Amino acid sequence: VLNSANEVAVAAFLAGRLSFPGIAELVERVLDAHEVQPDPDLEQVLAADAWARERSRLWVAEGVKRG
Questions:
Q1: Is 34 in contact with 48 (CB distance < 8 Å)?
Q2: Domain count of the chain?
Q3: Distances (CA, A) of 35 to 4, 7, 16, 41
Q4: Mean pLDDT, the chain, as a whole number?
Q5: N or C of the chain: less Cβ packing under 10 Å?
Q6: Angle of helix 20-33 versus helix 42-61 axis, rounded to 10
Q7: Span 4-13, pLDDT tens digits
Q8: What CATH number did the domain enclosing 46 receive?
Q9: 50 domain residue, yes or no
Q10: pTM of the entire structure?
């Protein structure tokens, strides 16, 4: 989740859609919204990755933490 949100946030920053401080703010927001699964299997890990990327993209598109 951390890596997924960070990748989306950095891409948004490089595209001019997110401020530099917004990277950390977006990642923190995604981490706060995520519900940790104890001992996840591969399917759960992939689902968490997809969820984090989608949530990050959604918040960037909505202009969250644009700067």
A1: yes
A2: 1
A3: 15, 19, 29, 15
A4: 94
A5: C
A6: 130
A7: 999 999 999 9
A8: 1.10.1740.10
A9: yes
A10: 0.89
For each of the chain's 67 residues, which pLDDT tens digit applies? Answer: 999 999 999 999 999 999 999 999 999 999 999 999 999 999 999 999 999 999 999 999 998 644 4
Is residue 66 situated within a structural domain?
Answer: no
**Domain encompassing residue 36:** 2-61
On whether residue 31 sits in a domain, the answer given is yes
Q: Classify residue 67: in a domain, yes or no.
A: no
